[in-house]
Automatic annotation (TrEMBL):
It is found in: Cytoplasm. PANTHER family: INACTIVE PHOSPHOLIPASE C-LIKE PROTEIN 2 (PTHR10336:SF84), PHOSPHOINOSITIDE-SPECIFIC PHOSPHOLIPASE C FAMILY PROTEIN (PTHR10336). Residues 500-510 have a biased composition (Polar residues). Keywords: Cytoplasm, Hydrolase, Lipid degradation, Lipid metabolism, Phosphoprotein, Transducer. Its main location: cytoplasm. It catalyses: a 1,2-diacyl-sn-glycero-3-phospho-(1D-myo-inositol-4,5-bisphosphate) + H2O = 1D-myo-inositol 1,4,5-trisphosphate + a 1,2-diacyl-sn-glycerol + H(+). Residues 641-770 form the C2 domain. This is Phosphoinositide phospholipase C. Residues 484-510, 1009-1039 are annotated as: Disordered. One of its GO terms (cellular component) is cytoplasm. Pfam families: C2, EF-hand_like, PH_12, PI-PLC-X, PI-PLC-Y. InterPro entries: C2_dom, C2_domain_sf, EF-hand-dom_pair, PH-like_dom_sf, PH_domain, PI-PLC_fam, PLC-like_Pdiesterase_TIM-brl, PLC_EF-hand-like. It comes from the Eukaryota.
Length: 1039
């Protein structure tokens, strides 16, 4: 292993940095020299000839440290020491069938120490006629990549490997850089550039590099050559570019897909885009378009080749950012009631510092509105010269004129979003100045204000679409039948309310708490409030009985937290119909922020944040509202919107009816991490590491960290993989945090926060942001993301999450007993279809697992990748396929073209089982789906009379409440299980599409033309099944 790390509990401070009392450092022990850049197969071969220490893993869990090296004639792979004779402690290169990455052989899957081995450091060599496996673990992912790349070239080209790779890659790069060098020639001859010009030219090609580092590299090169002048030759320029701008991790990725060439042709690129980046229906024209856009060399553009530099350009382009471009526009249904959306909200918007003595400024409103905020706060008091002013009462904050704020709101209200803006009006003015407020609002905002009375026949608020372009006032309102010019209402003073809540919590009975002050409200101002009438919250039972859908309650965060803890289900149900605003405790005099996720999980729509205070909590808020075009409205999860559904905000387990997703993240590398601000103790040295945090419901919250890469902020390589189970994907967020490892206290470098459902799978670059939310210039994380719906393979106690289970150990969804005979009889009829639905889904998903394993790939792989991986071994010695897919058959059967070896017979058996279970699901899912739906419809017919039916059965108190809750649970299960079955059907159809595509791409189709020069182009992910090693074959003798 790379090292052991003891990870104590870490506290996250407001600025996102982490501090701990005791900690052991995690160190990256890489055997690849820091400055040595691997960018060609010859580099890999040379490194293999020098040799590396690798660990050999046996199926009996024994591990042997051995030194492996490639013979200079490249004919065999040797290791030492060994008990075997020297001529037997080797493998002939020509006997190697395949090189497999990761822990994807039977030995790795079944030995007892697999969990201690890094997926990224493991690889296996499949060799011999019996397909034996040599399972190895490198000290770092760097070394593993070198061996895998070099061995794959040797398999393809044998002893001619180095001749075959007289690198067209290097030629393409050299010709491109040569042209650039000549174009920038300062002395007329084009033979040399001044040092300054050479530095600027490399800086132009790689803007993230520091000038001083480029200049130092040239000077080191000159010193090594004992050169006296400062001019730079073309060869020197190319060498320095190679050292500074080559990214080995991207080279290793390129050769994985390039059919063992030093570039990607259009077919290679097409496979990469579809199999890895998740793009659908990629034509070769699209590949050509990508090459023309990103390939810098003329040779590559003419031939349709994407070199390492072009591939790097593409991977760093907006096309490969992690954020789904579809979410950059409004893509959600905006026709649901207003209460069904999270609304981007600001607290004390007028403050730009703390809320006790900080200054007030209109720039607070400008910033919030430009960021997509849809709820801003105005705390209005009497001001001089009969002009109302805005500031925080009972504090020393400065004041701004109400009129100027309304002017700014009018100007910026609809700049970032056309959906309704809510003005939270906390009115403390006299009647005289209330009339001035009314005049300013009417004159400046005019028709933008929505003051039409609510429709009494409706049960819900209008939708954002219906209120497009409107401004809603939230505030106190006189009774609808009030006829005077002013009337008495309760004062809305958040500070006073907080003290009352604290008193009630300490003293018990809320009824004994002094009621808030009354004040006179001008009717004209009252009439401007229509859909957001402020009312006091008493308890959920009262609200369910008496509250109108246009009435809005504000919850202090302390009281809201109590509600979330004591009444999680009621809070969620309350928010299905009513808007709830949660504001920070006035005790937060430093304007720190609460965690918005604590209240989003309860369905609270308006969680007011102190925009002026950066840190983790604002990162979550900004990241969350990036989705749906940053319009300030995000549709809540379906389970929180449906009238009858069971969801508890504090669930620490999977959500009924929601299929958990598995998020697989590999942190590959970083680029151009800046030194943390205000940190000068280590000079310019940065020791970065990365945290991956999951924020969501309690069951989803988790974090993992990489090792520390010492003294390298420019291009650190992490190569570490993590996996997270996401139980409620619609509410989950992923936060990537980069920190500088320091014994004094780890300093914040950058972060990026993204909703789970906005993540694009594949190889992606993540732009890092500063503490205050600005994009850090040229600072990136390079990651690989895969999302699967379950984990396959392995034993439950090792794998941890949902794994393959036999029918005996299968968990079936069950109905709860209501003790209402008529309803219990209805729900009882769901037992059989629910069981059948689970069997269909589980059988199909479980059958996919062994097929992936026999293809030599992990559960992360899709079936497109599986067929591509298998294809090289489906071709016989005469270059003709030994197995063909019949695409005319709806279920894509396979037909052997002769006698198959045993290993391929196993693959075919696993494939046929997978197809059979998929077919069974497609043929039976509709009828089972209908049965479940019928039970749901029959039960819902009793919904309106549920309470009366329970009373007739003699239920009351807790038993009655439990019966109602069980009804909601059962309906949620029925809807959820029918949705899961529908999704499983869609999954099968997608799997068949992937197999269909891959068979065509690899020319493995019945009735297709014979083999061509393209027939071996699927070699990019080579994988075949290795021989299953029997326990009795294993001896204690080490090979």
């Amino acid at each position: 292993m790379n090292g052991l790390c003891v990870r104590p509990h870490l506290k996250v401070s407001q600025d996102g940095s982490r501090r701990c009392k005791e900690r052991k450092k995690t160190v990256s022990f890489s055997s690849m020299p820091t400055e040595k850049k691997i960018s060609s197969a010859s580099d890999c071969i040379n490194s293999m000839v020098e040799g590396s220490e690798l660990r050999k893993v046996r199926s009996n869990s024994r591990v042997y440290h051995r030194y492996f090296l490639l013979d200079a004639d490249m004919q065999s792979l040797r290791w030492e020491p060994s008990k075997k004779e020297s001529d037997k402690a080797k493998i002939d290169v020509k006997s190697i069938k395949e090189v497999r990455t990761g822990k994807n052989t039977e030995t790795f899957r079944t030995n007892g120490i697999s969990d201690q081995i890094s997926e990224d450091c493991a690889f296996s060599i499949i060799y011999g006629e019996n397909y034996e496996s040599l399972d190895l673990v490198a000290n770092s992912a760097d070394v593993a990549n070198i061996w895998v790349t070099g061995l794959r070239y040797l398999i393809s080209y044998g002893k001619h490997t180095l001749n075959m790779i007289q690198s067209s890659q290097d030629n393409m790069r050299a010709s491109w850089l040569g042209n650039l060098f000549e174009d920038g020639g300062a002395n007329g001859s084009g033979k040399s550039l001044s040092l300054c010009s050479a530095v600027q030219l490399i800086k132009k090609l790689s803007p993230g590099l520091k000038n001083i580092k480029i200049e130092l590299k040239f000077k080191e090169l000159h010193k090594a050559k004992d050169k006296t002048g400062c001019d730079v030759t073309m060869d020197e320029f190319i060498e320095v570019f190679h050292d500074l701008c080559t990214r080995p991790e991207i080279y290793f990725l390129l050769v994985q897909f390039s059919s063992n060439k030093e570039f990607l042709d259009t077919k290679d690129l097409k496979k990469f885009l579809e199999a890895e980046q998740g793009m659908a229906n990629v034509s070769e024209d699209i590949s050509v378009e990508v090459i023309q856009k990103y390939e810098p060399s003329k040779e590559g553009q003419l031939n349709g080749w994407l070199s390492l530099d072009g591939f790097t350009n593409y991977l760093m382009s907006p096309d490969c950012h992690v954020f789904d471009p579809e979410q950059k526009t409004i893509c959600q249904d905006m026709n649901q009631p207003l209460s069904h959306y999270y609304i981007n909200s600001s607290h004390n918007t007028y403050l730009i510092e703390d809320q006790f003595r900080g200054p007030s400024d209109i720039t607070g409103y400008i910033r919030a509105l430009k960021m997509g905020c849809r709820s801003v706060e105005l705390e209005v008091w009497d001001g001089p010269d009969n002009e109302p002013v805005i500031y925080t009462g009972h504090t020393m904050t400065s004041q701004i004129i109400f009129r100027s704020v309304i002017d700014i709101i009018n100007k910026y209200a609809l700049v970032a979003s056309e959906f309704p803006l809510i003005l939270c009006l906390e009115n403390h003015c006299s009647l005289k100045q209330q009339k001035v407020m009314f005049q300013h609002l009417k004159k400046i905002l005019g028709d933008k204000i929505h003051f039409d009375p609510p429709n009494l026949d409706d049960s819900y608020l209008p939708s954002p679409s219906e209120l497009r372009g409107k401004i809603l006032l939230k505030g106190k309102k006189l009774a609808s039948n009030f006829t005077g010019t002013e009337g008495e209402v309760t004062d809305e003073d958040e500070g006073a309310e907080m003290s009352q809540r604290v008193n009630s919590e300490q003293g018990g009975d809320q009824q004994t708490v002094a009621q808030p002050k009354k004040f006179q409200l001008c009717k004209d101002l009252s009439d401007l409030v229509s859909l957001c009438k402020s009312v006091r919250f008493k308890d959920f039972q009262t609200a369910f009985q008496n509250q109108k859908h246009w009435e809005l309650c504000s919850f202090n965060e302390v009281f809201a937290s109590r509600c979330a803890t004591d009444h999680p289900g009621d809070f969620v149900n309350y928010n299905k119909k009513f808007l709830a605003r949660v504001y920070p405790s006035p005790m937060r005099i430093d304007s720190s922020n609460m965690n918005p996720q604590d209240f989003w999980k309860c369905g609270c729509q308006i969680v007011a944040m102190n925009y002026q205070t950066p840190g983790l909590m604002m990162d979550l808020n900004i990241g969350w509202f990036r989705q749906n075009g940053n319009c300030g409205y995000v549709l809540r999860p379906a389970i929180m919107r449906e009238q009858v559904s069971y969801f508890s905000a504090n669930t620490k387990d999977s959500v009924p009816g929601v299929s958990p997703q598995l998020l697989h993240i590999k942190i590959i590398s970083g680029q151009n991490f800046p030194k943390p601000k205000g940190s000068g103790s280590k000079g310019d040295v940065v020791d970065p590491y990365v945290y991956v945090e999951i924020h969501g419901i309690p069951a989803d919250c988790a974090e993992q960290r990489t090792k520390t890469v010492h003294q390298n902020g420019d291009n650190p390589i992490f190569d570490e993989s993590f996996e997270f189970q996401i139980n409620l994907p619609e509410l989950a967020m992923v936060r990537f945090v980069v920190l500088d490892d320091d014994y004094i206290g780890d300093e914040f470098i950058g972060q990026y926060t993204i909703p789970f459902e906005c993540i694009q799978p594949g190889f992606r670059h993540i732009p890092l942001q500063s503490l205050t939310g600005e994009v850090l210039p040229h600072a990136w994380l390079f990651v690989h993301v895969a999302i699967t719906n379950r984990r396959g393979g392995g034993k439950p106690h090792k794998r941890g999450l949902s794994v393959r289970k036999g029918k005996r150990g299968r968990e079936y969804a069950t109905m709860r007993i209501l003790l209402i005979k008529a309803l219990d009889e209805v729900f009882k009829t769901a037992a059989q279809p629910l069981r059948e639905a689970t069997d269909l889904r589980e059988n199909m998903q479980n059958a996919i697992v062994p097929f992936k394993e026999l293809c030599g790939l992990s559960a992360v792989a899709n079936l497109k990748q599986c067929i591509l991986a298998l294809s090289p071994r489906l071709t016989g010695p005469d270059n003709r396929p030994v197995l063909l897919f019949n695409l005319e058959d709806e279920y894509l059967t396979v037909e052997a073209q002769g006698l198959l070896p045993e290993v391929l017979k196993k693959v075919v058996a696993a494939y046929e089982m997978m197809i059979q279970t998929s077919r069974t699901l497609l043929e039976n899912s509709d009828s089972i789906y209908e049965k479940i739906l019928q039970v749901q419809k029959a039960a819902m017919e009793f919904h309106e009379n549920l309470h009366d039916m329970a009373v007739k059965e003699g239920l009351k108190g807790r038993k009655l409440n439990k019966s109602v809750e069980s009804f909601t649970w059962n309906i949620t299960i029925l809807k959820g299980q029918s949705d899961l079955l529908k999704h499983a059907r869609a999954e099968v159809l997608e799997n068949l599409n992937q197999i269909h595509y891959a068979a065509l791409a690899c020319n493995l189709v019945k009735g297709a033309p014979g083999p061509s020069s393209e027939s071996n182009s699927c070699r990019s992910l080579e994988a075949i099944p290795e021989k299953a090693v029997r326990e009795e074959d294993i001896t204690d003798e080490e090979n």
